[in-house]
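Researcher: Hi, I'm a grad student and pretty new to this. My advisor asked me to get structures for two proteins we've been looking at. I'm not sure of the right format, so I'll just paste the first sequence and hope you can take it from there.
Model: That works fine. Here's the first sequence with its structure tokens right after it:
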Amino acid sequence: MEVKTPSPTKLLEGVDVSPIIRAYFEFNQLKQLYRQGWLKRGVPKERCESVAEHSLGVAVLACWLSEAYYPQLDQSRVMRLALIHDFGEIYGGDIIPGDDISDEEKYRLEFESVERVFKRLPNGGEYIALWGEFEDGQTPEAQFVRQVDRLEMGLQASVYEHQGYENLGEFFGSAREALLDPNLIELLQEIIELRNVST
């Protein structure tokens, strides 16, 4: 996995700190971890978003979209799911298609990461369960955030294309395959139509 800098948790080796400080240093790894798919498609490191930037984008979109279209969803739960959905990548890495890792192995690595980060926290079991809820995708909130996760990828692909990076069509296709909600599909279609707008 390509990262901006080594894991900040190395600073804490042999140091006794509170669980929240340790968890924050672990979370900080997501700020250092590039989104590997963009790197593999030619986005240079100095322009490549981190996993944490993606997670923030998902949270912002989930907030706006849930308030605009889905007021029946538990807004607090939506935000919490969006903010922690990538915590499995802290130690598991940003595993992408083509990495030759099975879905089962990816889940195992990410679950171990989530458990490692959250088990020390007050209410850590609740965070582990929340991440599991996102992965299972059975609740309305988890289904919604899972789709927003892919929609955000489509938006970022659009931004990159308008910045001059090419051959990102597969990201739009991947996003479309994941979307079931008509409102989100309509937004993705609008994003795709922007591909024909010259910059």
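Researcher: Oh nice, that was easy. Here's the second one.
Model: And its structure:
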Amino acid sequence: MPSDTDIVHVVDDDEAMRDSMAFLLRAENFQVQTYADAADFLAALPQIKVGCVVTDVRMPGMSGIELLQRLRELKVSLPVIVVSGHGDVPLAVEAMKTGALDFIEKPFDDDVFLRAVRLALSAQAVDSQRQAQKATINSRLESLSNREREVLEGLVAGHPNKTIAYDLGISPRTVEIYRANVMEKMQARSLSDLVRMALVGGLLDRRE
């Protein structure tokens, strides 16, 4: 059962999406506070001591990434989950590099969303699970061939198959085959799942 400190702060300019997430969370007995944009959340921040933040990545005014940057500047340690629309994978990658704990692609599965929130609200569980997850993901990354890793790097960068094919000097069809192999070896259920694994495994860190 959620405790009194399990407050989820939902930041989203889409009222319907905001209300939908709040309804789902309250149905699971979480306390919820909603905010129409990042400015509203930052205005309330001095009174916020506990919980986690769920924020859309694309919002008018201050984006979810800019909100993350501001929280980092303020040394606010609340865990943040970024919710991104389809096609926003590069933004989600940037968000995780800026400090987001996780990102979830819309439309999302309720169970996936709730599991991410529960993990975000339990720092110790997050740390232990991410360490175990990182070891598993690193093992899977090591199983990739050099070409599969190059394709994965292109996907993480948000490039379409045609761009990856051009960069690597191979056909788009060949990229599709490598992409399928990468998904299978990494045991990823979706592109966002694959990107998340690459980030947790530190793939970007090794390139920079």
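Researcher: Is there anything I should tell my advisor about the second?
Model: You could mention this: The CA atoms of residues 26 and 32 lie 7 Å apart.
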